[in-house]
Specification:
Elements: H1 4-17, E1 22-31, E2 41-45, E3 50-52, H2 60-73, E4 85-89, H3 93-98, E5 106-113, H4 118-128, E6 133-138, E7 144-148, E8 156-157, E9 161-166, E10 170-175, H5 179-190, E11 193-198, H6 202-211, E12 216-217, H7 222-229, E13 235-239, H8 244-255, E14 261-264, H9 268-282, H10 286-290, E15 292-293, H11 305-324, H12 329-332
Parallel strand pairs: 10-11, 10-13, 11-12, 13-14, 14-15
Antiparallel strand pairs: 1-2, 1-5, 2-3, 4-5, 6-7, 6-9, 8-9
Length: 336
């Protein structure tokens, strides 16, 4: 599955190829309780059709009207705006209220006509290969340069140059390719995780790979795969086979790695037994064992694979945001 921002660029490229003019909008700064974070992307077609969001619906209507008027004044030409420009919403409490920005929130956007689509084609090709790409836009000229990016790099804006990162900056390794793993994979992919799966059992892995396009299988035994992956602070590992022969060795490597999240399927009793095994046979320390999320996921009471997957992915999001956002943001979903 494509991430939301890549979906926006895919739509914008298709619109330009079909003869439409397109305007891109990127959130570059927020103050107060702005609904969308910096880097959020919106594409507006010359007839008002949109893809993406920059404010959760607060200012999109105004941006649509602004874009349609701009292209109409230019006779429908894609050059209604020949280079990027800045737009601000919610500078005053009155304007924030008029546009529906909560708690006096303020947005600054870069408005950019999509003239040259070559960079979009290249960016989509690179991210389809699971590469991270940095896109740098020079506002004075509208020039775009693509370069490689690294995990952990964030959007940067200095008033004249905008650099945004596209591609899967977070990754999730699933140990096991059963029905639950398929549900988790689908949800995680929608949240911009690069999803990887390892299962040496061919009867499970074959079905998973054929039904989950875009998700990579890593061949080999799970512990070898975890070690070769070299998990970092942007990697989560979840063991879902319910088979100690596969899960335990992988968990041993995962709990000693830099992974920000390690979880395992099983009841509280099974988790206690698992921790005893890991301590006795693999010499894992107390702090290392304390990193294990088990039973995996938030306690939502789910029973079906899809419901359990919701709880697992919800906990991933919770832990991820606790690491990268202010504490309040982990529960509110907006910067405060």
């Amino acid at each position: 599955m494509e991430s939301p921002d890549l979906r926006v660029l895919s739509d914008a490229l298709a619109w330009r190829r079909s003869g439409h003019a397109v305007m891109l909008f990127t959130v570059v700064q927020t103050w107060g309780s702005a609904p969308r974070p910096p880097g959020a992307l919106l594409a507006v077609r010359d007839d008002g059709v949109v893809s993406g969001s920059v404010s959760g619906g607060c200012v999109e209507d105004d941006l649509i009207a602004r874009t349609r008027a701009s292209f109409k004044a230019a006779g429908g030409a894609a050059t209604a705006l020949d280079k990027p420009a800045m737009i601000a919403y919610g500078v005053s409490q009155e304007e924030a209220a008029r546009f529906g920005l909560p708690c006096g929130g303020t947005l600054r956007l870069v408005q950019e006509p999509l003239l040259d689509t070559g960079w979009v084609t290249q960016l989509l090709a690179h991210t389809a290969e699971h590469h991270l790409v940095m896109r740098t836009l020079t506002l004075a000229t509208g020039a775009v340069v693509l370069s490689g990016a690294e995990r952990g790099q964030a959007m940067q804006f200095d008033g004249s140059t905008l650099s945004t990162v596209f591609g899967p900056s977070w990754r999730l390794l699933l140990i096991g390719a059963g029905q639950l793993s398929q549900a988790v994979a689908q949800m995680a992919a929608m949240l911009d995780f690069e999803v990887l799966v390892c299962d040496p059992r061919e009867e499970y892995a074959a079905t998973f790979v054929s039904s989950m396009p875009g998700i990579r299988r890593l061949e080999g035994m799970p512990d070898d795969v975890v070690r070769e992956l070299q998990p970092d602070a942007h990697t989560a590992i979840v063991a879902l086979t319910h088979d100690p022969k596969l899960d335990d060795m992988a968990l041993m490597e995962a709990l000693r790695s830099g992974a920000f999240y390690v979880g395992a399927l099983g009841s509280r009793r099974n988790q206690a037994t698992r921790k005893q095994r890991l301590a006795q046979h693999f010499d894992l320390t107390g702090p290392e064992l304390a990193r294990l999320h088990g039973p995996v996921g938030l306690a939502l009471g789910g029973r079906t694979p899809a419901e359990i997957a919701v709880s697992i992915v919800a906990e991933l999001v919770q832990v991820k945001h606790a690491l990268t956002w202010p504490l309040a943001s982990a529960t509110t979903g907006v910067l405060s």
